[in-house]
Amino acid sequence: MSKKSLKHIAVGFVTSMALMMSTMIPAVHAQGFISPTDNPSAVSTATQGQGSFRQLALTIVNFFLTFLGLIAVVMLIYGGFLYISAAGNQEHIEKAKKIILYAVVGIIVILLSFAIVNTVLSAGSGAATT
């Protein structure tokens, strides 16, 4: 890997970590933000009955990480298809390899983000995770 690609990966990783941290900081200070008795039925349905901001943030972040994981898997399949259908064309092979590499790196970052966010946001709630 070249220095430039390592730099791009490092910048992407730092950016994703900063975004994760910015979603976690408000959750620490606003635990009683949404009260189950204050929820109108539409809000209660939309939040799946979540009573704390921490659980609501965890649900939203998990939704987006799942969506991003789905996109990464689709890109991995697309890169594999391009690689198989390249028919010896070096440009197509290199393009496919880049797509596969970036998809795998994306999946790794998404899995790490999922683990970190779930660990940090579930740690202070006192709820046992399964």
Please describe what this structure looks like.
The protein is an all-alpha fold. The chain has one domain (3-123). 76% of the residues lie in helices and 0% in strands. It has four helices and no strands. The protein has helices at 3-29, 41-46, 53-84, 90-123. Mean pLDDT is 76; it is low at 27-31.
Structure in a nutshell:
It contains four helices and no strands. With 130 residues, it is an all-alpha fold. The protein has one domain.
Output the helix-strand order.
Answer: HHHH
Topology, number of strands: 0
CA-based gyration radius = 19 Å
The count of domains is: 1
Question: Percent helix among the residues?
Answer: over 70%
Global shape: elongated
Structural class: mainly alpha
Give the N-terminus to C-terminus distance in angstroms. 38 Å
Low-confidence runs (pLDDT<50, min 5 residues)? 27-31
How would you characterize the largest beta sheet? none
Which percent band covers the strand fraction? under 5%
Compute the average pLDDT. 76
Number of helices: 4
Based on the model shown, name its key terms.
mainly alpha, single chain, 130 residues, elongated
Fold topology:
Blueprint: H1 3-29, H2 41-46, H3 53-84, H4 90-123
Helix pairs in contact: 1-3, 1-4, 3-4
